[in-house]
Design a protein that fits this description.
Two copies of one chain form a homodimer. With about 950 residues, the first copy, chain A, is an alpha/beta fold. The first copy, chain A, has 30 helices and 26 strands. In chain A, the strands form six sheets. A seven-stranded mixed sheet of chain A has the order 2-8-7-6-5-3-4, sandwiched between helices. Chain A is globular. Chain A starts with about 25 loop residues before the first helix and ends in a 10-residue tail after the last helix. The relative contact order of chain A is 0.14. At the A-B interface, helix 1, helix 4, helix 5, helix 13 and helix 16 of A face helix 1, helix 4, helix 5, helix 13 and helix 16 of B. The complex binds pyridoxal-5'-phosphate (2 copies) and bicarbonate ion. One pyridoxal-5'-phosphate (PLP) binds near residues 579, 712 and 727 of chain B. Bicarbonate ion binds near residues 556 and 573 of chain A.
């Protein structure tokens, strides 16, 4: 085994040459100091961190060989390398459109949210009481989408527009109990949306029929839905009313994909009669980022609420009767419904949804309309110029995109001329180009394009554009965004304060460890984040020519190689923009592999019952039949059940999905045996890489038997969670699967897509690349070792007080461990969820509650927490244990005690009346160091039942 | 008059061409919306904002002519222009040294502090209870300086090293009651420090005698102090002990200028016996920024504490007996002692001091030593190479700077060769260069320099440097930075949380209006701040060749022209890095003007008693005799007293200093008459531009009679206050004074300097430039109009409740107004200061307390506050007025009431015991909207008297 970490020297200095830079992230990323490491090892009862790792990670699975890795960079050198790569990208003026638009992120929002760890290091707001700020902002997002689309219900974001379209297709399909298998799609739809629809239709047995909408056979009994892009891919605004009318007549569901900026001028889809509307909020302040991340959205008429995929924020009351937000109707979701869930979506795009809703808050309805009008004036002017100089328009009615049939010049020639002016325009066919304007368009842009169209300089300002939409039947008749929040914070001072007010309601990593098992809430360092708001990375359109993205491509190559080497894989796709999308991509890759061998019957996927809910949900979406495999009480796979199921399904076995270390936080000794058994029976192994943070440098999934894994870059590789996204979930594969990866087939007949953009959420992949280059391979290995150390340290400290479940060999855990809370229930009424709430009173964020075991807490401290932080957290848990003991011993009352009543917002402990069976001090300051605490729950315990019964998921319009 | 603001159209849109960008800062910077503006005008009783302005600003003083102004830019266009100018600067590797060093600002500190409005929009911590965070950080700064210098007392920053040296000289001079007039200065001192010492010595009648320190005649009875730079300007570390010993023998005070990084290796100045040590903390994480801002420091033996210039943070107890920080010993300072103050310093460098102390917190003593050692290894290696290839060293003992007498090549040729490699080295004389390394030095740098020295590529890594200091008598023997705070927050996570913890204790503009009269706490917009952390601006050395600073110079030219035009001046110097420095510069410019005409007797400066304390203090430093002029009860100059004094001093009259609008917030009608009278008697008029925010676009100082003004860019022109600095105080002058401006004389025999760097704090001037370009001339005018509107609106709302003092013509105020609190004292015991404390319970920052009138509040809301914010603030004040009424009416107790006991920290209202004569709710939530308040004072009222009696101004070393 590779005992190469010397806890005395892992911090800077000792074994370094004097020349080397000292600004290594390495010892900043890892929490414990060398001295602390020694103390922790001692408490755990091992001589060193390496002894611990040796005793924890099964020796026969340990990585034996070394890998080549690019040199480790100091922070300054990393920034220089980032600049070099950024400068290798070429930022052209982008008039490509296609659902991605340059825009102006208001600097106040950039600083206050996108660059602010108080926002971006938040976790998904499952702990509602210390997440009211982001819940309010997501509620604003839902309101904004409802208002713009004219529909009653919106979720809190999806991954992008094409996947949202696919989700909508899934809703239509499910609505008719999967009996109606045809989904009609208007041909004037973005190619990447079509590709996604086809990809996702295939495993479900849906036929995507692409036609001009006028040809839609809506009377056919096998049609579940009809999909129209509005405005269309070529910019044209068609009259959708006849289609909708006919669909309604025949009970066919109607879906539109639309553009939120266009909708400030165009009649709302809901008003037109669409059932569902999807789209992207990217142009509301989010950089194009060579494809993402940005918030996809889905909205539907109110009756859809229990069928809508993704997270939905709802309003409810708290225990004191005050209004409070929380995630609503969670029973739709994969973490509860598993294979029966509406969708596999888990990580979404919360941070970007917040940016976009804040953009709307900042501009308000009038500001948004002005932006839209200006864009529309510009495109009208361009259209006017084009026709004046002899070209023809593909459509007279458009919003921002003008499709021009060129006269006397080929599209290629025009595109090339534009490129000389550092402008990208879209070639639609040999003689047609499209120009899509956005809010950044300038007079100089128009003048250049006018000159190119005319073949000679002409006076572009002479164009007197009129607002074509305003005077048309397409003009919006309905008001929108009348709510106070969209009409209040229009000065920068007000905006800054609003963002801060919300931020300060929420616990993020800037205040507290967030030791969420399976979520790896580690440091997202400031240096790693710097490309995110660098225009050289931000302002690249995903469909810009690759020659303009050379910096990105070089970075991706390097990054893929690093992660493949770390994980023992041969190839990688960056396409999936979340872990769940990675699962879907991986399983579909496996299917394509089987299919390619003529093995077309293989559709069974064995999944241990302890698996994350996304696993079975993804299997279903990949057209597989998930088969549960039992686990032993220690969380390991039940060999007997596994063998039985394997035997039973061996002819149709497609894959096994397994999480390693297990979702119980244990390194199973026998993992390779199971992999072998699957292989022997013709299946492939999908190893869920969510727990990769326990393995980097220690175990290589590709070497222990797995064929494909996703890596949650937002866990192991330091992309911040952003309060529920962004994520990025690339998949690594062994060589046999490589030809079947999504992007390998791009442009072929077998084209298939997992996300809209060629490389997924490129902008955030820069973070993970930076992390790897800053840590180096030894640093990355140490990150895993310290993740294991920190978990075992906490476990050792808590073991005397709590029942620990499922440790591995030698009784150590991997990078996370589970506390069983069942013992308290009978005598005290206290459950894991109550302890989670009580932690809020200690200013702390709870661990994962009741997953993978009910009434348990799963703790994953990560390597980034220091010993004092871990001790503080343990002290709090021990103190809560003592509070439970007070109840057990009858010193505190069952039903009226500091835990059952938790959390205690400030308003309660400051109230003039105090009628609890304990003191204010016991409620608010149970430990002395809490006296100065800054984070308080801002509401009392939220009432989920009330909220789900009395659903409110957006702010009502101002009447 | 120019009634050009249409309140309906000032917001975007109506009068704009459709082509124009919509991302104008204009309507984001100004708080009130058009609708709000109408409502406010109505309440004030005017038909429009223009009517108000017409009635407020005397018509005969109003600007009549238009100016040329560069085009107004949208936010995106501004960023593009900023990038263009930044790219015009050339960032070379900087080995110039001279007290300015490249360094690595830890990205976590960049994001958490330098780019975070929660830190940079703070005001000077006069309201200690809501400023404990930054007070703690400044206390850390003082501790850091004490520890590194080995001296007992440090202040909380000065403006830069040269001015700190001048302050130290002033201390020596004052110590001997100005009787000993010679100040000895070792010749091995930075040229710009020498220049500053000479500049500041001249008006005081001090002779600066520059010699080798071995020649110092310390026995001479007229010597007050001896100054040594350690290490010297050429890098040499001399043996200072003999000089110190002789000085002590003769009772001469000793001052050293030193380098905090060097001091981690070198014996501490205090240990060596120096009385005073000055220097710059720039290299602790602050960008060079073409000269500033960064924190100068001054430390001295403990007995100096009552004589040290600048703000000093001290620890004390609060009303509940808990430890608390606050500004100590304010009676030394100009705002109390005026002409008898220790110095004129007011705005200092708090933000940069905080960055530097956080840098030390982040690295700790070991990390700092490692950085220093690495630098020293590099310089030793270079020295070894230089001698190995036949050059000679000027000194064998150095820290980071190697002075090399070149063999076979001239210094010019070497400098030119280095420039080809984009490296700046310093030419000391025809045959000597100096190379100063810093923490960013790389192996590649060394290799390049080695090759240049050798004339051929050589193996630089072969150099085996030894630590020369360590084995020398100069090695530091004393421990430093043993305090817990410097040994705890070394992981990024811990650092991020520490910064956040402190931030969240303090009120800044992100939470509350800070309507400080005379301080103009307006929006510092995110877009304006972007150059500050852009390396193309940050990494330019102030003494880099001008060819490398073309972007800066273009920007400065444009900026000077804009401000000169606005203010009616002909020329401008950017040299002064604070308002007070501007006063000093302006008065010295006037003196030089008089001198140039042979008018050498003119030394009297008439100053109204209502003037800011810096005015008389600056006059004294300029060698003038300040003569008080009485003011009438309404704050205007008393004509009789003025005429009498004028008559009396007419032969020696140098200048009048006057603030306009007056410090009472009134546009005096007769200002031009006073100016004429001064001119008629041979004097010049200094118009203190602190209140320029009431005048931009409305009144031009240069047209109403003034000859020179400083502009506090940190007020009118949007540089953030940073919790007490940075500032920037350029002066505009009429043409007759132009030849006498500081930089005009640079390089001549008459060279004189106001700050160390050629253009003052260049990096922050970028903010003011951006503000002007974003607002345009109409926008800037509107800013002043809305500043006047907002002030008059608040005054109108408060007038029914409080006694308003000193309104102008038509009973309007300018941009600020004064509430007289004397009426409450007798019956309730309440004073203005109590109201200020009570405002903290409302989550608000107090107005200016007891200046310019005692027991009064001066309110300046600025244009950036919206009507709701103003209303909230007024509601709070009215509510406090009602609380006072309760006492007046006997319903609340004198001595035990919500105001006298204010502020109420959370710990108090949550305590189990409550024995006040009012309820917790009355204490904490006097108004309903306070229920969710986020900002609380973190301590009870601080006890100034206790703290000044029991002085603690740094953290004791850990024993
Ligand atoms: C074990 C496991 N698998 C899969 C996922 C899904 O990843 P994502 O949220 O990125 O879709 C998670 C997310 O928490 C997980 O913990
Ligand atoms: C009227 C007036 N003059 C001068 C000054 C001094 O300016 P500075 O603090 O930049 O030195 C101030 C600062 O508040 C002021 O209000
Ligand atoms: O290169 C990509 O895998 O997207």
């Amino acid at each position: 085994s590779s005992n190469d970490t010397n806890p005395d020297s892992f911090h800077r200095g000792e074994d370094m040459r004097w020349q080397e830079p000292l600004d290594r992230l390495y010892h900043r990323h890892i929490g414990p100091s060398p001295e602390e490491t020694m103390d922790m090892a001692e408490l755990i009862g091992v001589a060193s961190i390496d002894e611990l790792v040796d005793m924890t990670v099964p020796a026969h699975l340990r990585t034996q060989t070394d890998i080549e890795f690019p040199p480790t960079l100091g922070e300054r050198a990393l920034l220089e390398e980032m600049k070099r790569l950024g400068d290798k990208n070429q930022v052209f003026r982008s008039f490509l459109g296609l659902g991605y638009h340059d825009n102006q992120l208001p600097p106040v929002i950039q600083r206050a949210i996108l660059e602010n760890p108080g926002w971006y290091t938040q976790y998904t707001p499952y702990q509602a009481e210390i997440a009211q700020g982001r819940l309010e902002s997501l509620f604003n997002f839902q309101t904004m989408i409802c208002e713009l689309t004219g529909l009653g219900i919106s979720n809190a974001s999806l991954l992008d527009e094409p996947t949202a379209a696919a989700e909508a297709m899934g809703m239509c399909f499910a609505h008719f109990r999967k009996k109606k298998t045809v989904f009609l799609v208007d041909e004037n739809t973005h190619t990447h949306t079509l590709s996604l629809l086809r990809t996702r239709a295939k495993p479900l047995g849906i036929e995507v029929r692409v036609q001009p909408m006028s040809d839609f056979d809506l009377a056919a009994t096998d049609v579940c839905g009809a999909f129209v892009q509005y405005p269309g891919a070529n910019g044209a605004i068609a009259d959708v009313s006849p289609t909708i009318a006919r669909a309604k007549e025949h009970g066919v569901l109607t879906v539109c994909a639309s553009d939120p900026l266009a909708l400030t001028l165009l009649e709302a889809p809901g008003t037109l009669g669409f059932d569902i509307c999807v789209g992207s909020a990217q142009r509301f302040g989010v950089p194009m980022g060579y494809g993402g991340p940005h918030a996809g959205f889905i909205a539907a008429t109110s009756d859809w609420v229990r069928k809508l995929p993704g997270r939905i924020v709802g309003q409810t009351l708290d225990a004191d009767g005050n209004p409070a937000y929380r995630l609503a109707l969670q029973t739709r979701e994969q973490h509860i419904r598993r294979s029966k869930a509406v969708s596999n979506i888990c990580t979404a795009q919360a941070l970007l949804a917040n940016v976009s809703s804040m953009y709307a808050v900042y501009h308000g309805p009038q500001g948004l309309s002005e932006i839209a009008n200006r864009v529309h004036h510009y495109s009208s002017a361009l259209a006017g110029i084009a026709t004046a100089v002899g070209h023809t328009l593909e459509s007279e009615m458009f919003f921002d995109t003008v499709a021009i049939k060129l006269n006397g010049i080929s599209a290629d020639a025009f595109v090339a001329m534009a490129a000389e002016h550092e402008m990208n325009v879209f070639k639609a066919d040999e003689h047609t180009i499209r120009v899509a304007f956005d809010e950044t368009v300038t007079e100089a842009d128009l003048a250049t394009l006018a000159e190119l169209l005319a073949g000679t300089p002409i006076d572009a300002t002479a164009a007197s554009p009129h607002n074509r939409i305003e005077t048309s039947t397409h003009a919006r008749s309905t008001e929108f965004l009348t709510q106070e929040v969209f009409n209040t914070y229009h000065s920068e001072t007000e905006m800054m304060r609003y963002c801060k007010k919300l931020e300060n309601k929420d616990i993020s990593l800037v205040h507290s460890p967030i030791p969420l098992g399976s979520c790896t809430m580690k440091l997202n360092s400031a240096v790693e984040m710097q490309a995110v708001t660098n225009p050289q990375f931000g302002n690249i359109h995903p469909f810009a020519p690759e020659s303009q993205a050379q910096g990105y491509l070089e970075m991706f190559d390097e990054f893929k190689k690093m992660v493949c080497d770390i994980a023992g894989y041969d190839d990688m796709s960056l396409h999936p923009n979340s872990g769940a999308q990675g699962e879907l991509a991986g399983l579909m890759t496996i299917r394509r592999y089987h299919d390619s061998r003529g093995d077309t019957k293989r559709n069974v996927c064995l999944i241990p019952v302890s698996a994350h809910g996304t696993n079975p949900a993804s299997a279903v979406m990949a057209g597989m039949v998930p088969v549960d495999v039992k686990v032993d009480p220690d969380g390991t796979i039940n060999l007997h059940d596994f063998s039985t199921k394997l035997e039973k399904h061996k002819d149709t076995l497609a894959a096994m999905m397994v999480t390693y270390p297990s979702t119980f936080g244990v390194f199973e000794e026998d993992i390779s045996m199971y992999c072998d058994m699957v292989h022997d029976n013709g299946g492939q192994v999908y190893l869920d890489g969510a727990n990769m943070n326990a393995q980097v440098g220690l175990v290589r999934p590709g070497h222990i038997g797995a064929d494909v894994s996703h890596f949650n870059l937002h866990k192991t590789f330091c992309i911040p969670h952003g309060g529920g996204g962004p994520g990025q979930g690339p998949i690594g594969v062994k060589s046999q699967l490589s030809p079947f990866l999504p992007e390998q087939t791009r442009g072929t007949a077998d084209e298939w897509d997992i996300s809209g953009a060629p490389h997924g959420s490129s902008l955030v992949t820069t973070i993970s690349w930076a992390y790897c280059r800053l840590m180096g391979k030894d640093g990355l290995t140490d990150a895993s070792k310290f993740a294991i150390l920190n978990a075992n340290y906490m476990m050792a400290r808590l073991a005397p007080h709590f029942k620990i479940r499922f440790t591995g060999t030698n009784n150590f855990c991997a990078h996370e461990f589970i506390i069983d809370c069942n013992e308290f229930k009978a005598s005290t009424g206290i459950e894991a969820g109550d302890i989670a709430k009580r932690l809020q009173d200690y200013g702390l964020h709870a661990p994962t509650v009741s997953w993978p075991l009910t009434n348990a807490l799963m703790i994953e401290p990560t390597e980034s927490e220091s010993k004092p932080a871990l001790d503080m957290y343990c002290d709090a848990l021990v103190s809560i244990r003592n509070e439970i003991r007070e109840i057990e011993q009858g010193k505190a009352m069952v039903g009226d005690n500091v835990i059952t009543n938790a959390p205690h917002p400030m308003s309660r402990v400051i109230a003039d009346d105090w009628h609890k069976s304990y003191t204010r001090t016991q409620a608010a300051y149970p430990l002395e160091w809490l006296r100065g605490k800054q984070m308080w729950p801002t509401v009392a315990r939220v009432n989920d039942v009330y909220g789900d019964k009395n659903l409110v998921t957006s702010i009502p319009p101002r009447s």
